[in-house]
Specification:
Largest sheet: 2 strands, antiparallel
Low-confidence stretches: none
Radius of gyration: 20 Å
Mean pLDDT: 91
Helix content: over 70%
Oligomer: single chain
Length: 233
């Protein structure tokens, strides 16, 4: 099975795009008006920054997944089992994150938001109950997808950190992302947070830089041919 230089360069562009979408997801919420209650929240859903963020959030996992496939191809030459299972973890993350945003774009924004804003008190109570279920489902999906993302990053990191040069740097960044993801999950379950400065700046620095360097590494990749012996049947 052969993978051309063009394959890796398309994946590299996807990684660059994922760096851009990551930055948008970090900073767009600053432009969305704060919501003190459900009515304000529903009203904010019509804000341009909110609409843009929702669509960026939906597209983001597909860019990351395309890059993750190319990383798995590169990593398969070293540890095929870890590469394949790591990509499966990223597939789980991407599918669940896209599902989250599908619920947001269709159920919440297309159906429930207009009904809430146009409805009477009784109708608003019905929509409020549905939104409470939506929030619980969204958080549950988030819990699972973060675990998938963390394990995918961990497996890629363990393989690539054994390399040299930029490959090793990419591997170490994957390990840093995995550590951050596991930490975030632990915080949700009561673990202590990082010091405020690290908590505020670490994610905005690590994620976009990592995705950019993954893109550079993939752009420089030579063609790869995986033999039948490399990929388990």
């Amino acid at each position: 099975m052969a993978f051309s230089r063009s394959f890796f360069r398309v994946a590299a562009v996807c990684s660059f795009l994922s760096a851009a979408t990551t930055l948008l997801l970090i900073f767009l919420p600053r432009w969305i008006p704060p919501a003190a209650d459900l009515a304000a929240r529903m009203d904010a859903h019509g804000h341009p920054a909110y609409v843009l963020r929702s669509w960026v959030y939906f597209c983001h996992p597909f860019f990351v997944l395309a890059a993750a496939l190319a990383v798995a191809v590169r990593a398969a030459g070293r540890q095929p089992g870890a590469a394949i299972f790591g990509f499966a973890c990223f597939m789980l993350w991407a599918w669940l994150e896209a599902t989250q945003q599908g619920l947001t774009l269709v159920a919440l924004d297309r159906w429930w938001r207009p009904a809430f804003l146009a409805g009477d008190a009784a109708q608003r109570d019905v929509i409020a109950a549905r939104v409470a279920v939506y929030d619980a489902v969204w958080d549950s999906l988030f819990f699972v997808l973060v675990i998938g993302f963390a394990f995918g990053s961990l497996l890629y990191g363990l393989v690539l950190a054994r390399g040299a040069g930029l490959e090793r740097v990419v591997g170490l960044l994957y390990l840093a992302i995995a550590a951050w993801s596991f930490h975030g999950t632990a915080v949700d379950w009561g673990a202590p947070r990082l010091p405020p400065l690290l908590d505020i700046w670490l994610y905005p620095l690590v994620q976009p830089v990592a995705r950019t360097l993954i893109g550079v590494w993939l752009w420089r990749s030579p063609p790869v041919a995986l033999s039948p012996a490399t990929v388990p049947p």
